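Subject: Sanity check before I submit

Could someone independently write out the structure tokens for this chain? I want to compare against mine line by line before I put it in a report. The sequence has 348 residues.
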Amino acid sequence: MRGFLTLVGLIVLGAVGWLLWNIIPASGMFAGLKPKLIDQCRKVDVFPGTEDVTIDPELNVAFISADDRRATFAGKPAQGGVYVLKLDGSDRVMKASPDSFGEFHPHGISLWRGADGRKRLFAINHTLNDGDKVEVFDVGLGGALLHVDTIAFKEMSSPNDIVGVGPRSFYVTNDRGVKEGFMAQIEAYFALPLSSIAYFDGQKGRIAARGLTYANGINVSADGKTLYASEFLGRKVSVYDRDPATGALTKKKSIKVNTGPDNIEVAADGALWIGGHSKVFDFLKHAEDPAAISPSHVIRVNPETGLKEDVLIDVAGTINGSSVGAVWDNTLVVGAVFDGHVMVCPIN
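---
Independent answer below. Compare away.
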């Protein structure tokens, strides 16, 4: 009996040690944050939940995925949408996605450009009545979106973000390996590497990579040969060699970052711009209470050297819980999980 109790004690002690070893660093509870750039930004109202942003430099617009998550949590869901923000200084906003194709609660989005100039926008759609799907839109004049396809496949089990790599092919991050129940809590609190990346080749889907710790944002390099995936609870970005012909991924390295990384945007120079949650417990409080402040943090990462730079930090609630920082030329657009606006910021 004494041996059994000793064994149980060691298991409990080990579990507590594992929890503290993973959660304390992942939570960022001791992170020191000093405001940066936020005082130079201007607020542009869009629609609640400006979670993802991507920029079309040819149209000079930012596409913004927005969904009122608080309304959904309250049992009063509102139709979400993809909005277009003009980057000509006018700050004009219009809804670009149609409502005619059905229920739309967008999450991650991706703008794909073909060699012939053709453009498509991909969006994760968390429907309340028919599961998770990917909606595909043709991009028209001024950024207007024409719905052309809806795709779902079993390997896309808990989609968060998406990156298009062809007119009907894409990768998605599955942010959890277990969606509900006790094991879902264990996965989150023990930062277990159970999430994955799924690939749809235009006809069928498969799992392309496993072993991520809350896979979140995803993107590819301009030549399509490198794929980046953020691991929110791992506080790192995983880098994969990608075979464009087969879609196969081979893990190359991981880059540690100083925030809980969310969405990834790739700049013209190849740098990664990442919106993040530096203080996870503050973000969880903000998810429950809109009045609670959740710091916003945007970083720039050189994927070759791993060098990191803080670009924007807000600790006063000007924008709470930043999830993306999209950049082109001298403009940065920051979106958030719950807030109904973006911040448009000048950068050098």
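---
OP: Matches mine. For the report I'm noting this point. Residues 31-346 form a domain with the Neuraminidase fold (CATH 2.120.10.30).
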